[in-house]
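A reminder from the course coordinator: this example appears on the midterm review sheet, so study it carefully.

Given structure:
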């Protein structure tokens, strides 16, 4: 028979237990110190990256200044001066030499896509001999032309855009433009445009990064991307950066690092261009061996757990018989039986413990019963939410519309509808989260409205009037889309006049009030009362046959009450031939994103 180790009185057992807790505290301090080391290394790496970011910004300024000098050289070129001052007949004599001269400027640098000179005397010449101007493009309406004229000789640097001035060529470029003046009398002669490739900017941004996953990108003052190493993914909305929080760093005097997930963002502003250069550092590059450190701590923790478990087993073997009996009774919790301890012949402390256990079991039984009821309601609500999200007819009709527009050559509409459909499904998923920012819910319903508006063409228009200060508030996802769908199919679709959907949002006291209003068919009082009863009654009590859209509205109401309480939900107002208004009331929950 195994000999049990006796630890004497209960006080001695408590003393030994506290000894183990102290040992845990020491181990915890070791973990804290390791985190302190991690933070120190991280701050050091980020400070080094700050120095690299300042160097990169200075190099970009130097690069843009060199382009400014090039533009001045082109302006002071006497051959170009003569060409912009000559009449049409004289220009024809030197047209070939002028193109060759501009071509030499392009060939001298590998970062120039094209050079274009637009003279006020009607002369237009490019550095590409085979280039033909796009007849459908008005040069005078281009932003770079307008900004050059407003600058009175000062160079203008654009953001990135697709250049369509040359027929058949649509490259992504950054442009420098400036007004040209005569070196003799200072009269304006025309406008110079230099289109830049991204290779030099790309080389600069890639040369000063930390680690394998670090990168740099550039945005302008209007939050437009000038350069990103994954430019196509960004403009296709397949990848995004937290631009707004990053720009907010410029308003801070102390903390100038934004942290999101495993990435750290820092920003510097170019004094020459006004561009904002953003450096991104990945956590794995700050601590490349962090995974090995975590594995080591895990192994140590596992060994320690096994040792402590063995010690706990030795301690538990000395527990008195009444405590073992109480323990065996408590094991019934694992099987869900929740056996009552009743009266145990033991010391007062054990009796008190048994009594408290019986009270706890009674309370657990009540909570389990209540939880079963709530879970049943939640499962039904989740099922209805899934059914409301998946509408195959909407998807089929949308895809048919995309095919039809593609066959009609409406490429821009195809891109727009496809992007809206992708955004609609991406926001519907929302990373598995049920509570999302209001701005994401607005983006979701806008994508749905964009698709429906393109499908129904001029059948309706929509307006969203929601206070931007509420965009960071949290709400239940897929709340507005079923209401808008109901407005389209049961309101606007039933009338001949142009439809209007108005989505409003405001804060009242500690609640957010959202409304979806249409000018459609509307409902009479009897239909409205029947719909209201069906929404507010339980499924078994409702004798009102709901359509798929009606089920979606009811599902929204039930989900809101399930998550936020019975004080919140939907309310309805409708008048025949004047339209319907559905109002949503949710709690005000503001949270910085």
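Designed residues:
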């Amino acid at each position: 028979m195994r000999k049990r180790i006796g630890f004497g009185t209960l006080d001695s057992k408590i003393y030994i237990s506290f000894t183990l807790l102290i040992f845990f505290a020491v181990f915890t301090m070791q973990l804290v110190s390791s985190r302190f080391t991690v933070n120190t290394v991280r701050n050091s790496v980020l400070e080094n990256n700050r120095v690299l970011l300042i160097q990169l910004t200075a190099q970009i300024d130097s690069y843009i200044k060199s382009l400014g000098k090039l533009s001045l050289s082109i302006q002071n070129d006497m051959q170009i001066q003569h060409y912009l001052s000559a009449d049409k007949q004289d220009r024809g004599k030197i047209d070939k030499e002028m193109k060759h001269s501009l071509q030499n400027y392009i060939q001298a640098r590998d970062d120039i896509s094209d050079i274009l000179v637009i003279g006020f005397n009607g002369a237009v010449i490019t550095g590409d001999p085979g280039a033909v101007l796009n007849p459908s493009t008005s040069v005078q309406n281009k932003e770079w032309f307008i900004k050059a004229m407003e600058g009175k000789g000062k160079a203008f640097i654009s953001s990135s855009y697709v250049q369509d001035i040359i027929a058949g060529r649509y490259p992504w470029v950054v442009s420098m433009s400036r007004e040209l003046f005569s070196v003799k009398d200072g009269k304006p002669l025309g406008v110079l445009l230099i289109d830049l490739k991204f290779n030099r900017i790309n080389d600069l941004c890639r040369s000063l990064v930390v680690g394998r996953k670090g990168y740099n990108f550039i945005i302008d003052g209007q939050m437009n991307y000038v350069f990103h190493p994954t430019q196509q993914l960004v403009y296709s909305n397949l990848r995004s950066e937290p631009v707004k929080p990053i720009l907010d760093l410029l308003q801070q005097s102390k903390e100038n690092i934004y942290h999101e997930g495993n990435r750290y963002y820092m920003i510097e502003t170019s004094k020459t261009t006004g561009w904002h250069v953003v450096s991104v550092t990945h956590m794995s590059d700050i601590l490349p061996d962090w995974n090995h450190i975590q594995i080591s701590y895990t192994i140590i923790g596992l060994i320690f757990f096994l040792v402590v478990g063995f010690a706990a087993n030795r301690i538990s073997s000395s527990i008195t018989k009444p405590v073992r009996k109480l323990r065996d009774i408590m094991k019934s919790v694992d099987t869900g039986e929740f056996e009552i301890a009743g009266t145990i012949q033991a010391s007062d402390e054990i009796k008190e413990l048994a009594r408290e256990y019986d009270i706890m079991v009674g309370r657990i039984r009540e909570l389990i019963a209540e939880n079963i009821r709530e879970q049943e309601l939640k499962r039904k609500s989740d099922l209805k939410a899934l059914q409301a999200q998946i509408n195959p007819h909407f998807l089929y009709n949308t895809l048919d519309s995309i095919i039809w527009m593609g066959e009609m050559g409406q490429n821009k509409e195809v891109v727009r509808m496809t992007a809206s459909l992708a955004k609609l499904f991406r926001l519907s998923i929302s990373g598995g989260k049920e509570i999302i920012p209001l701005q994401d819910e607005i983006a979701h319903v806008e994508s749905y409205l964009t698709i429906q508006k393109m499908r129904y063409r001029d059948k309706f228009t929509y307006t969203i009037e929601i206070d931007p200060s509420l965009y960071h508030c949290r709400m239940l996802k897929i709340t507005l889309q079923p209401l808008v769908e109901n407005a389209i199919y049961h309101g606007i679709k039933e009338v001949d006049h142009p439809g209007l959907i108005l989505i409003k949002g405001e804060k009242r006291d500690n609640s957010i009030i959202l409304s979806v209003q249409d000018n459609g068919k509307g409902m009479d009082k009897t239909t409205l009362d029947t719909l209201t009863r069906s929404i507010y009654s339980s499924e078994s009590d409702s004798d009102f046959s709901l359509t798929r859209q009606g089920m979606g509205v009811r599902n929204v109401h039930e989900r809101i009450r399930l998550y936020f309480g019975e004080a919140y939900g939907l309310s309805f107002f409708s008048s025949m031939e004047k339209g319907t208004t559905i109002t949503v009331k949710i709690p005000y929950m503001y949270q910085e994103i």
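Residues 390-587 form a domain with the Heat Shock Protein 90 fold (CATH 3.30.565.10). The chain has 18 helices and 18 strands.
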